[in-house]
Amino acid sequence: MHSHSTVGRVTEQSSSASTIKPDMTTNIDDSTTVAVPSVGTEMPLPSTVTASRNCTQNDRPQCISPWIRNFEEQLKLGVPPAKIISLVAERLTNVSENILGGDVNRSIGLLGRLTDVQERRFNNEAQKITKEEAIGFAETMITCGNALLKKHIDRAWRTIQEDRWSEVASGIIDSSERAGILLARTMPNKTHWITEDHIVMEIRNGSTRLDTFPDLDKSGDSLLWAEVKDRITLPRTEHHVVSAIFNNVGQYLKPKSANRTIISRIISATLVNGSSSAGLNMDGYVTIVLEHIDETFNGLTFCVFWDVSHGNWSHSGCNTVTTNATHTTCKCNHLTSFAILVDTTGQHGTIGPEHELALRVITNVGCIISIVCLCVCICAFLGFRRVRCIRTIIHAHLCICLLAAEVVFLVAIDKTENKLVCDVIAIILHYLFLAVFTWMCVEGVELYVLLVKVFNLKMNRLIYYHLVGYGAPAVVVAISVTIDYFVKFKDTDEDGYFDGYGTNTYCWLSVDSYFIWSFVGPMLLVVLVNIGFLAMTLKVICTQKAHDTSNQSEQGIDIKFWIRVSLALVCILGLTWVFGVLYINRETLVFAYVFTIINSFQGLFIFIFHFLLNETVQDEIERRFGDKYTCCRSKKKRQKTVKRQTRRTARSPQQQEIWLGDFTDTKDSQGSATDTKDTLFNIDDEGFVENTIYEGGAGAEGSVDNVIYEGQPD
């Protein structure tokens, strides 16, 4: 063959009259070279002529070495596949450093055609393949595949168009498995091992009990595979099993999405019934355990298999059982080539181990303190009758939701080993934290309602508050779960599906897609509504003060205090999850500490604002237990009781004493010496309770009518 000074040539077989472009040297046959002028028109070629041109760069993906073409011609001439594949293995092994991108592509294609011919020979009774020939063919095939996966061949792979990597790389797996199946069909009662640096294969005989494949302890003396724990566990089967592990091939079997990558070796298993490849009984499941070869990842991990029909990774029929930083366990209802796929969207770094320990300590200490504080608040709000009113009942429900959320967060936020359990935990946390924000909003609504409107006593607005406080979050979560089940939020592969609940690191909503807005959106809406009601409440107070400056200090100070408290808590809760989303998405150290501290001590903040600074609660504690148990006290206000003579009824006339809390002095709004109507602004330590009308003559004790009250004595 004519020798060129360049490394390789591009060859093209013309099926019809063809043309060649200028600036190339063309081989008409093995002994003749025609020089094409550098300037001129394209020249037609006969249909039987093979044209080639010199490669000007070694990394041209179309370039192939002459020996590839030679082996392809030998196969056409009927040379036995076993002989050709031995020559291919020798070439790939000895000249691997000079392999071109075109050599990789054409070599894998050649291996596939050699396997096709060998399968036809096996099925032809006149050309029966011997056991020795099958062993030699399979071992040589693994040697060729191993040579194409060596690290220094990566330069040649990079010259191939990236969108063709999967097609080319899958050919290595396919040819290796088919060669192993041929071997299993020729030696039905034997177990055989083939071990190379990047591929290990086991062909095991039938009558297999529940067992793991491949059994690497028996694979030979290769140190590379000694510590590998990858395995497939099969149910009992009478079929032969061909199993293999491929190293380095995952980097070329790339998912379509740039945010996803394969972080494990590829493991495959095939059942052989003696005459052909057989499928696994659908009643059985296989268990796959794969090691993460890159433990620095941070993202969602999924069990996937290579879908040959679509040329992509899919997780159909596979479930992630457990996962951690080093290994993932899967269950699948079929056999093929499996791997672990990680979604690295949002990966921006990791928190160091020393900071992880500090954050965990802060979380544990803060959550425990918050849990204790919330329990104290719940007991006080629901246990003290003088304290119990609509607003404190709302406080209690807020504390109950936050208490449950803190407990689940403390115990289960990082229980990611079981995907289903992690999803359930994430759904529970989604609901509980939304309920916390909803009850905060209900508190703001109640504050506004009490100030501006007198309700009919027959209407129990607590019923509506409960429906909103617990019903609204339930609706949001139900819609989110439904959408997450039926709609693909992520840019998934064709047959892929990825849940919005549960991540590889936390049992929370995925921040790698728009699904996180099922929490952030309602949270922001609730915060804005709450702020709006508090602003309207403050406006009413300012309007009332503008019409009455004589007692504005007494009328406004308590209600404004509770508005400030509500705003403070809304801001604290809102900022908590602003930093939470930023932390989970970016894993920035500052965000991590801010989120951890605020989130862990939310219960303490509620305890301070609603318990320690609550005069009514402190009064009740002093009344029950004495001064030494009270704290954060201002000067005790004078409490007034107003007696009213109730209308005689058929059941029992009585003198009823109504607990009204602390009142401001009355403001004469209209009346005379004999008939006066005075407006009472019923203000206790909780703020405005209701507007009341005080009726009585001048100098008389008077009576109270149209009173709606929120507390009652023991």
UniProtKB/TrEMBL annotation:
<feature type="transmembrane region" description="Helical">
    <location>
        <begin position="394"/>
        <end position="413"/>
    </location>
</feature>
<feature type="transmembrane region" description="Helical">
    <location>
        <begin position="514"/>
        <end position="541"/>
    </location>
</feature>
<keyword id="KW-0325">Glycoprotein</keyword>
<protein>
    <submittedName>
        <fullName>ADGRL2 protein</fullName>
    </submittedName>
</protein>
<dbReference type="Pfam" id="PF01825">
    <property type="entry name" value="GPS"/>
</dbReference>
<feature type="transmembrane region" description="Helical">
    <location>
        <begin position="361"/>
        <end position="382"/>
    </location>
</feature>
<dbReference type="Pfam" id="PF00002">
    <property type="entry name" value="7tm_2"/>
</dbReference>
<keyword id="KW-0245">EGF-like domain</keyword>
<dbReference type="InterPro" id="IPR000203">
    <property type="entry name" value="GPS"/>
</dbReference>
<feature type="transmembrane region" description="Helical">
    <location>
        <begin position="590"/>
        <end position="613"/>
    </location>
</feature>
<comment type="similarity">
    <text>Belongs to the G-protein coupled receptor 2 family. Adhesion G-protein coupled receptor (ADGR) subfamily.</text>
</comment>
<feature type="domain" description="AGRL2-4 GAIN subdomain A">
    <location>
        <begin position="88"/>
        <end position="184"/>
    </location>
</feature>
<keyword id="KW-0732">Signal</keyword>
<dbReference type="InterPro" id="IPR000832">
    <property type="entry name" value="GPCR_2_secretin-like"/>
</dbReference>
<keyword id="KW-1133">Transmembrane helix</keyword>
<feature type="region of interest" description="Disordered">
    <location>
        <begin position="1"/>
        <end position="31"/>
    </location>
</feature>
<dbReference type="InterPro" id="IPR032471">
    <property type="entry name" value="AGRL2-4_GAIN_subdom_A"/>
</dbReference>
<keyword id="KW-1015">Disulfide bond</keyword>
<keyword id="KW-0472">Membrane</keyword>
<dbReference type="Pfam" id="PF16489">
    <property type="entry name" value="GAIN"/>
</dbReference>
<dbReference type="GO" id="GO:0004930">
    <property type="term" value="F:G protein-coupled receptor activity"/>
</dbReference>
<keyword id="KW-0106">Calcium</keyword>
<keyword id="KW-1003">Cell membrane</keyword>
<dbReference type="InterPro" id="IPR046338">
    <property type="entry name" value="GAIN_dom_sf"/>
</dbReference>
<dbReference type="GO" id="GO:0005886">
    <property type="term" value="C:plasma membrane"/>
</dbReference>
<keyword id="KW-0677">Repeat</keyword>
<feature type="transmembrane region" description="Helical">
    <location>
        <begin position="561"/>
        <end position="584"/>
    </location>
</feature>
<feature type="transmembrane region" description="Helical">
    <location>
        <begin position="463"/>
        <end position="487"/>
    </location>
</feature>
<dbReference type="GO" id="GO:0007189">
    <property type="term" value="P:adenylate cyclase-activating G protein-coupled receptor signaling pathway"/>
</dbReference>
<keyword id="KW-0812">Transmembrane</keyword>
<dbReference type="InterPro" id="IPR048072">
    <property type="entry name" value="7tmB2_latrophilin-like"/>
</dbReference>
<feature type="transmembrane region" description="Helical">
    <location>
        <begin position="425"/>
        <end position="451"/>
    </location>
</feature>
